[in-house]
Amino acid sequence: MSGSNRLAGLKARPKDTGPAEVRKVDEVGEARGFVDRTPRKKPGRKPSPRTYQLHPKVFPQIGEAIATEAERLGITQGQFIERLWERYEGSH
Amino acid sequence: MPVIVMASPKGGVGKSTCAVLLASEFARMGADVTALDCDPNKSLTRWASHGLPRGVTLRSDVGRSEIVTTIKNADGDGKIVIVDLEGVASQLVSRAISQADLVIVPMQPTALDAEIGSEALALVREEEEALSRTIRHAVVLTKTSAAVKSRVQKELENQLRGAGIDMIEPSLVARAAFSELFAYGGDLTSMLNNPEIVTGGKVDKALLNATAFTEAVYERLK
Predict the structure, then answer these.
(1) What is the ipTM of this complex?
(2) Residues of chain A positioned with their CB less than 8 A from the CB of B29
(3) CB B221 to CB A15 under 8 A?
(4) Range of B99's domain?
(5) pTM more than 0.90
(6) Which end of chain A has a smaller Cβ tally under 10 Å, C or N?
(7) CA within 13 Å, CB half, B182
(8) Chain A, 33-52: which have a CB under 8 Å from a chain B CB?
(9) To which H or E segment does residue B177 belong?
(10) Are strands B172-173 and B102-107 parallel, antiparallel or unpaired?
């Protein structure tokens, strides 16, 4: 078996590749169980990189004020403490 | 030039082996071969990592959303596209079949392989109807015995032929050289001519089998 001249007789044959044809093929496949099995990304929120747990106990009115202010700013209490820490570091 | 798709929703039937043998043998005939590895197991990519034969280009990680355009872009005069698919029933498989000039369904001579492989044959026929186009398809038996044809194999061949299924002859015999191609890369000729490659089987017999198989596939592409 040799000789590229034999292969030269084989020509490219055009095929339907439009969205309508692909949809038709998908429908035929799905009816037979050939469904989309593309691996899905893991659903849900990604784990937070904030993994360190503080355990501060503060006076109730200060705790409530921190919680209220964090909520007003639309951030977590942890992010609020990070901002306070930045300010603290910047002042020294 | 033609697009040849290896399809079976069952894994381990010899799709990747068929793809590697056809890619390397058609390249040896002088064709410009593009092999598309659409199998998450990346068998073709592993084969290619040890060295591709001259004339073969590999594209890995071809998924459902890009299979149609990838085949279209790779196809052209003077080129043969060989698509190795995953061994599951997926939309990727049905889309690849829609772009095929020849669908090869490899199956081992067992009732289970035949039953699951027939799903691919049925899908091809339904796609033919939906697209109003003939998609040539054929079965090749794989991992057959070199010495004797088992009773199960004879029965299976009779059943498939009785159902009007095109059977590719010769079947692909269970040869160590076929599986060792994935460890050494290249093609059977390079394996035969390299004294450093130690195989557990007869490479010359494997080469004869692969050549005859490719010739039989070529006859179906004309």
Answers:
(1) 0.85
(2) 1-4, 6-7
(3) no
(4) 3-221
(5) no
(6) C
(7) 16
(8) 33-38
(9) helix B176-184
(10) unpaired
Across the A:B interface, residue pairs with CB atoms under 8 Å apart total 113
Residue B167 sits in a domain of what CATH number?
3.40.50.300
Residue of A nearest to B30 (CA): A4
CB contact under 8 A, B26 and A37: no
The string of pLDDT tens digits covering residues B95-153 is 999 999 999 999 999 989 989 999 999 999 999 999 998 999 999 999 999 888 889 89
DSSP string, B93-147: HHHHHHT-SEEEEEE-SSHHHHHHHHHHHHHHHHHHHHHTS--EEEEEEEEE-SS
Q: Which of B22, B25, B39, B98 best tests the A interface by mutation, with the highest count of A CBs <10 A?
A: B98
Whether the per-residue pLDDT at A1 is higher than 50: the answer is no
How close A44 comes to chain B (CA, Å)? 24
Asked if the C-beta of B93 comes within 8 angstroms of chain A's C-beta atoms, the answer is: yes
Share of chain B above pLDDT 70, in %: 100
State the DSSP H helix or E strand holding residue B6, giving kind and residue range, or none if neither: strand B3-6
Confidence label for A5 from pLDDT (cuts 50, 70 and 90): low
Domain count across chain B? 1
Residue for token pair 């202010």 = A69
